[in-house]
Design brief:
The protein is an alpha+beta fold. Helix content is 39%, strand content 23%. The protein has two domains: 2-201, 3-Layer(aba) Sandwich (Trna Endonuclease, Chain: A, domain 1), CATH 3.40.1350; 221-374, Yope Regulator, Chain: A.
Length: 375
Amino acid sequence: MYQIDRENNSLVLLEAKSFSNLGFRERDHLQEWICKNPSVLAEELLIIQKEFNGFDDTKERLDILALDKQGNLVIVENKLDDTGRDVVWQALKYTSYCSTLSTAQIVEMFQQFLRKEGSEADPRKVIGEFVHGSREDFILNQNDQRIILVANTFRKEVTSTVMWLLNHNVRIQCFRAIPYVLEGRPPTVLLQFEQIIPLLETEEYIIKIREKVNEEQDRVRKRSDQILMDFWTGLVREVSQRKALSFVLKSDPVRPQFYYSFAKEGVTFAFCIGEKVPRSELYFNDDPDKKKIDSMKVALEEAKSDLLSELIFQRLENRKASRIKIDMSVELNQQLNIGWNDQSTWPDYYDWYIESMDRLYRELLPVWVRVKKNL
């Protein structure tokens, strides 16, 4: 910041100071300045609580809670000279606590705040006038909550985390609060609030671009999901027409576009679209000690199964489950992999899925029935 020297038609650089060196404190000063002048955060905000510690089962204390003109909750976390490492985590915790607040609870919180401030104003009327102009039949906190961080200095780990959150549609802003001293008797302290993330001039543009990208990604995802659902529908039809397998296929309710399966003898046989190549598998849903998959491997080796050279045993060490699978060869997948969008390749994929599952089912099920009796 510069001071204009009219006499010499020049500029005098004002040195940025720290709040602590000037004797200012976070709660007594910076927080109070924001509460009394919320417009320093570049918009109209209604302060509805400060130093709030009324969350259930926690002693966490939220610095400032506000409403914007759309009735969204705004969590303001302020630090004095340095954000520290944990400011984003703290703000996210408070935001999660506030995410479940109802309109009635917010009005009650505001009423408590007004009483502490010595005001007898009707909280519902004040909020109604602020949000709608006059109406009192409002609904608050319908959208995701917003976060504003205020500090003199932002650490790199904080700004990088904030940028990541922004890219994942978390509505978060960072403001630098910088004090300057204008020499004189007595000296005058000036305070500058500056939005640094996202830049105020580009914030609306960034939001529009993000919305456009999200819409395009959602459109592509829905189209891809529908293509894969059509693929599985064709596979179910092929299985039925060929009478190749003696079971009923069922889609996974969580991710039906990637997984079709059937249960037999307490295990699951499944067709999957893997990360790299398609696969058919025998899946043990409950195998925390890996006794099932290890016993199956021993039994198949003793039986000298023809499939051993193709089987892949995955113990999935950090999970309760395990699997035995057959992957489509990389060569065949590359040969067919013109893309799921090309339905001309689907019959070849159907042939591989049905053939591999038929072999897997006929070879592994009898072995599993024997192994299960000894577990």
